[in-house]
Amino acid sequence: MKAIVFQGIRSVSLEQVADPEIEDSGDAVVKVLKTALCGSDLHPYLGREEGLEPGTVMGHEFAGVIVETGADVTKFSPGDHVVCPFTTNCGSCYFCDIGLTARCQRGQLFGWREDGSGLHGTQADFVRVPLADSTLVSFDKVIPPELALLAGDNLATGMYCAERADVSSEGVYVVLGCGTVGLMTITACLERGAENIFAFDAIPERLDRATRLGVTAVNFESEDPLDLIQSATSGIGADAVMEAVGSSAAGKMAYDLVRPGGTISTVGVHTNDRIDFSPVQAYDKNITYRVGRCPARAFARDALDLLAKDSSTFVSPVTHTISIADGVSAYDMFANRKDGCIKVILEP
Prior knowledge:
It is built from 12 helices and 17 strands. The protein is of the alpha/beta class. It has 2 domains: 2-153 and 295-347, Medium-chain alcohol dehydrogenases, catalytic domain (Quinone Oxidoreductase, Chain A, domain 1, Alpha-Beta Complex), CATH 3.90.180; 155-291, Rossmann fold, CATH 3.40.50. The strands form 4 sheets. Strands 3, 4, 5, 8, 9, 16 and 17 form a 7-stranded mixed β-sheet that branches. Helix 5 packs across helix 11. The longest helix has 13 residues, at 296-308. The model has no long low-confidence stretch (mean pLDDT 96).
C-alpha cells in the first residue's frame, strides 16, 4: 500500500509498504477514506520532538471503512464507516472508566514507533486498529469523512479545551491560536453558550475563519492583546484563556491575559521543558492551570453529533484536499504555511 513515511528531520517520503494484517483477535483493518495532517505531525518532522523511528508511517487522524475484523471484535463488521481517535483505548482500565482515555493503560498513539515498538500511522491506504471495539466509533455517512475525522482529534480537543476552561454563557473568554484546534475550540465555546470570545492569531486566513464564527478575531501583531482584554473587562482580565498553540509565547500571553482566579486551559502540544510562568506568578494570580492530552475517545461521539447537525457554530477548517501521492509536498506546504494552508486532507 501507499504510505507517507518518516525518514528524518524535514524528510518524509511516499513509499510502498506492506498492507496491515490482523495481529490480534481484537484488531480491525480499516480502509482509509480520508486522513489528514495535524500540527503535532510537525513536531517530529521539524525536529522539535525526538525519538520517532525512521520508517514509521506518519499520521493519527482518519475516517474509513472496515475491511476485516479479528475473531473477538463484536461491535463492528466489514463495511462499517468508522472514525478513530488518535490513541487506542481498552475501555476497561481505571483511566478509561473515568473518561481519561488518552491515558489508557493499554493505549498506543497512532504514528509513533520507537525502539521497534508502537503503531504505524494513518497516512496510508489501510490502518490496523488494535482494541477495535473500544477504540473505533461509527459515524453516519451524512457526515463527509474529511469532517468526521475531526471527531477523532481536532474537534474533540477543542471540546476538551472548552470544558476544562469551564466555559459558559457568562464571562469573557480568549482563544489563542486560530489553527484547526483553535477554530474547533471556538466552536466548542459557542456550543456552550459563550457570547464574548476573543481569538488571537497573526495569519489572515485563520482570522478570517474565526471572524466567520462571529467572534472578535484580532491580529496580535497589529493590536496589543493585553490592552484589548483589559479594556474589554474594565481592567479585570479574561475569565479563561484557552491556549491552542503550544509555544512559550502563547503560554506567557495566556498568563498575562487571564484574570486573578481565572483558568488557563492548554491543549497546544508543548515541546519546551518548563511552564512559561513561575509558581510564584501562578500563586500571585490564584490561577487554575489545566493542561494535557485530549481523551479523544471520550468526546468523539458528541463531536460527531455536532458535525451531523447544520450549525452556525461550525466552520470547516479544511483548506486543501490533496492526493496522498503528493503527501511529501503537502508536508512542505503545511510546515511553511504556504497558500493559506490551515487543514490539509489527504486522499489515498
